[in-house]
Amino acid sequence: MDFGMQFFPCVGPETKPANQYFSECLSLVSLADEYGYNHIRIVEHYFHAYGGYSPNPIVFLSAASQRTHKARLITGAILPIFNNPLKLAGEIGMLDAISDGRIEVGFARAFLPHEFNRFNVSLDESKARFIEGMEHIRALLENNEYAAEGEFHQFPPTTSLPRPTQHPRPPFWIAAFATPESFAAAGTAGHAVMAIPLSGGRMGELIGLYREAWHKAGHPGNGRVMLAFHMFCWPDAAEAIEYSRERLNGYLSSLVDAASDWIGGAKSSDYPGYDKIMAGLAEETFESQVTKGAAWIGTPEQICEQIVDYQKLVGDFEVASLQVNFHDMPLELAESSVKLFSKEVMPRF
Questions:
Q1: Does the structure show a pLDDT above 90 at 162?
Q2: Of the chain's two ends, which shows fewer C-beta atoms within 10 Å, N or C?
Q3: Cβ-based neighbours of 328, under 8 Å, separated by 6 or more
Q4: Please, what are the domains in the chain?
């Protein structure tokens, strides 16, 4: 299993100023190569403490590329729905050049109604915009010249610059949340899949659907699955809980607040059952997350047991993307956790 660092800002100016937050993140990034973390990953969200400090993952990953030489740089994920594919393709090519071919591109549909409202995009256009936008980006990266006549974007024969450093293009990931169709679609397309393990043992079924679709489509190998976990590794078990419980609860509270429109009546055929999904998330706590294996919290030995138990529950997966400084975690705590996890947990896997 590969382990990487994920940065998901879940703070606002009243909690931690943006310059302090990103300074701390980049300090942690600087540890990645030395301590064996194979990727750096960051989200795209807007306008809310839940992710809003990161409206453009490529900006942060460009800075991260100068603090590392080996770690892969993964957008986790960019949102074609709110962006012009011509601009995204150029930015991807630029970061691929700056990083000497280390970018991997994760795409997501977006799921927060407040973002759609502010960008004046209909929730009911989500799937169509995602599929079209991602296809335009793929074609712009793979072809020296490409013209589009889509429903949402049209442009004449165009050469996207810079051309990708990786050939024919950087690897693609698809973010999938809880719907079987998303996992199957990623497998059919031959892309890796990134997910959040909020559904307990059901994640095993979803991964199985991805693998099945991958093989049925005739792709070589078994695909790649990345799951994201909160992680805090500490020598003392009681202190590990003390330092992380309210910070993880703060993250969960922020997520539910950002997605509250689903509970408040937002509906879309592109997001079936999201009212129930978000209502379920509103019941999640630190304890439930640790119990179902979505958060790895404790001493090195406890975390090793948690990882083994989770693998037994859902089966094998290739990549664990770790939120190492969630909510307002102080830098010194996150640094110590990152180092201890590297020394005493990673060699076991």
A1: yes
A2: C
A3: 11, 15, 16, 247, 250
A4: 2-348 (3.20.20.30)
